Amino acid sequence: MIKMEKVRGILIGRMQPVHNGHMQVIDKILDEVDEIIIGIGSAQLSHELKDPFTAGERVMMISQSLAERGVDPSRYYIIPMQDINFNAIWVSHVKMLTPPFSIVYSGNPLVKQLFSEEGFEVNQPPLYDRLHLSGTEVRRRMLENLNWEELVPKATAELINEINGVERLKNLSNKEVSEL
Ligand code: NAD
Predict the structure, then answer these.
(1) In-domain check, residue 38
(2) CA 81, CA 97: separation in Å to the nearest integer?
(3) What is the CATH number of the domain that holds 115?
(4) Helix 90-97 to helix 109-117 angle, to the nearest 10 degrees?
(5) Which residue puts its alpha carbon closest to atom 5 of ligand 1?
(6) Which range marks the domain in which residue 110 is found?
(7) Residue 87 Cα distances to 34, 102, 120, angstroms
(8) pLDDT, tens digit, 9 for 90 and up, residues 57-86
């Protein structure tokens, strides 16, 4: 009997926070591969205006949002990845942290370039409602008391509320008197 190898794809994103665009891409990738590796990029960053959430919080956002969608847990791996200073060896760094994969999904030009140079098949998934479905837009709405919950999975909104994430972001945006 011929043993068929599993086809694995990888999606790497900062996911600050996870939003409905990420979830739609994950759905699409799962239609094309047996297993998906979801890399939480810039894992070392948190408590900054552009990167408010810790890697652990982002892992919970994704795992709870996938559970809410009914995605089989045996089909995905969620792996936090710290940035490194050397773009030329970043792909090796990612490979060291993950199960083997053959297809890379990304819309990020640097990510696409680095993986293509190493011979990987790189696919650009379609962007879903990019005007509204971006981390930047979710964080803007949080700061301006607008409806950010509609842009993220319900489980992610619940987690952000549970950890007082909006309050954290607002506190981070307060300038010290000396900076004004
Ligand atoms: P992101 O969260 O903005 O996006 C992740 C992916 O989700 C994108 O590739 C895009 O395809 C998809 N996506 C986002 N919004 C979407 C939408 N509305 N519809 C459909 N798809 C959508 O993250 P990013 O900035 O691309 O993350 C790349 C990570 O890789 C960063 O953490 C970066 O630091 C890291 N990186 C590190 C190095 C290094 O350490 N030297 C080098 C390259 C990249």
Answers:
(1) yes
(2) 8
(3) 3.40.50.620
(4) 80
(5) 13
(6) 8-172
(7) 28, 20, 16
(8) 999 999 999 999 999 999 999 999 999 999
Please report whether residue 118 resides in a domain: yes
Contact 122, 104 (CB under 8 A): yes
Is 177 a domain residue? no
How many structural domains are present in the chain?
Answer: 1
Residue 1 CA neighbour count, 13 Å, CB half = 3
Residue in 16, 108, 132 to alter for ligand 1 test, most ligand atoms within 8 A of Cβ: 108
Report the 10 Å Cβ neighbour count for 21: 24
- Spatial CA neighbour of 19 closest among 136, 150, 151, 132: 151
Distance CA 51, CA 46 (A): 5
Ligand 1 centre from 14 Cα, in Å?
Answer: 6
pTM, two decimals, is 0.95
94 and 37 in contact (C-beta within 8 Å)?
no
Centre of ligand 1 from the C-alpha of residue 103, in Å? 15
Residue 130 pLDDT grade (very low, low, confident, very high; cuts 50, 70, 90)? confident
Which pLDDT tens digit goes with each residue over 110-123?
A: 999 999 999 999 99
Strand partners, 9: 36, 103
SS3 at position 112 = helix
User: Residue 157: inside a domain, yes or no?
Assistant: yes
The size of the chain, in residues, is 180
